[in-house]
Amino acid sequence: MYYVKPFDPWKSKLCTCPPKFSFNPYTGCYHNCIYCYSTYIPRFHELRLKKDLFRKLVKDLEKIPKNSLISMSNSSDPYPPIERELKITRKCLEIMSDFDIKLLIVTKSDIVARDLDVFPKKSAVGITITSLKTAKVIEPNAPDPEKRIEALKIIKECGVPVILRLDPIIPFLTEDEAMKVLEKCDFVDHVVTSTLKLRKDILARFSKVLPDLAEVYKRIYTERVGSYMYLPKDFRIRLLKAIEEKCNELGVSCAFCREGILFKAKSCDGSHLIPS
């Protein structure tokens, strides 16, 4: 396999994702989010094109079983600004439309709505919205959250299932406005959420951008899970159950990502929404 590979959730024992494949049209990411979990990848902030992408994508799609679930993307966003001109992701969607697959598109960009006409028949779209007020601080190069919400609405109106990725919940920074995000996105089909996890490189970025908050995190992040530091479980339960209760009020299914906390939704990532 060249570029379509079995999904590896960083070998997390808490992952509840269904079996799926992962595909990233680009290498690296432009958004420069300070909480990014993928910066262990060398030169991650240097957006790069993949060699012989389209031919190799076809080869990969010919090898995987019919009706396979593919998540695009799990590390680099498939819709960096340069996608408006290059249309690499769009071409990949056109190729994928010729195969019997299920596709979960994951992005932080409103550009995704442009490609509605070439989505594979069995698709769903998840858009990440972490904050309304502090987005420019924690996601400096990502599109405006209001544009992302509008893209979700457009996609939903066209009959494609939509997922709000309210992720991560950043303690003492975004937890209060999470409810406002949910209210603005009360039309979505599913919400997946999780709390901020920390590695040394992530904490270092918080120390540069939000130094006071970083000092608090050094004291309260006490639970190690693999290579990440987690908030204590009772703290995480409080944050996540508040999100779940709001989703219940709105009539929207809700799940948690890599938390080790039970949820009622049929899948964590929203892939259950994709028609078979």
Automatic annotation (TrEMBL):
Name of the featured protein: Radical SAM domain protein
Respond yes or no to whether keyword ATP-binding is given for this record.
no
GO terms for MF: catalytic activity; iron-sulfur cluster binding; metal ion binding
Keyword tags: Iron, Iron-sulfur, Metal-binding
Q: Where on the tree of life does the source sit, at the highest rank? A: Archaea
* Organism field: Archaeoglobus profundus (strain DSM 5631 / JCM 9629 / NBRC 100127 / Av18)
Q: Which SUPFAM superfamilies match?
A: Radical SAM enzymes
UniProt cross-references to InterPro entries, sorted A to Z: Elp3/MiaA/NifB-like_rSAM, MJ0683-like, rSAM, rSAM_sf
